[in-house]
Amino acid sequence: MNPSQASSITVTPLSFSLDFRNATTVPLNETVCENWREIHHLVFHMANICFAIGLVIPTTFNLHMIVLRAMLTIGCALFIIWATLFRCALDILVWNIVFLLVNLLHFIYLVYKKRPIKIDKELNSLYKRMFEPLHVPPEQFQRLTGQFCNIQMLKTGQAYAAEDKTSVDDRLSILLKGKMKVSYRGHFLHNIYPCAFIDSPEFRSTQMNRGEKFQVSITADDNCKFLCWSRERLTFFLESEPFLFEIFKYLIGKDITNKLYSLNDPTLNDKASQKMDQQPSLCSQLSVMQMRNSMASSSDSEDGLQHFLRGTSTGSSLRQPSPYLRTSPKMKPIEENVEDDVFEPSSTMKPKAHQ
Fold this sequence. Notes:
Helices cover 48% and strands 11% of the residues. The protein is of the alpha+beta class. A hairpin with a 2-residue loop joins β4 (180-184) and β5.
């Protein structure tokens, strides 16, 4: 291109100016609804009423989620009927089919979770007496008793544990039926009644020391039936269930407390033991474990037994000390003020020892 030709080319700028004089105005009546369509069919309104009912149900209502999903399911079904028969709208039909399936599946799941849990007849009294007052749900109790435990039986005179022979690391049991007696070197200590742990002190003590043996003998006084857990599997299960772990801590501590009371009163029966609802304390657990484990480890076991029996009730025939037995300095009798001794400062304990 020649320079003379390039200079002759003129550039015309683009104009973006709008001519408002030639614009046509849209009348107001074309953008605002003047002629409303007729009201939709009654099915459409029934669907929306179901949605409204489901949304206004208060959360304090026990079954509010089930009722909400039921109302949403019914509403979606009515929308499908309306879209198919009266509106002929494919998009409305498809979306409501999806919503219907989602809400229906959720409704079935919630109903399944609320199904009544059937507890075995042999375990029903155990649940009613020990676990239901602590607000343990039936489904949790069923998981606790349905996986790694079994029900065993003992005839009259058969031994559950023999002192210095049976290991305490294998199991934890609750008596369901019958009565057992606990003895040390042939001397009766206390009874075990239904809905009570058989070996709770040993379970508590073996959390600190493994490989120990029973220091007492536990035999069936009647035909007995008991629920037995594998201790290792129970411990592993409770680690994954914090709520049940705290429940077991409370129940075992309470059972140790009841055994302590029965040691001080061998005439205690099953009805009286049911009324013992005291919170388990540290001194109660230490006292029973001291009785069951320390007596046999003492150098003079007969002295330890006699010294322990001094703390029992006056109605016990074994309470009177024998003139042929001397007091062992390693054993301390279970007294009523044992809690004060446990928590008493060391500075105040030493002068009492010298007195």
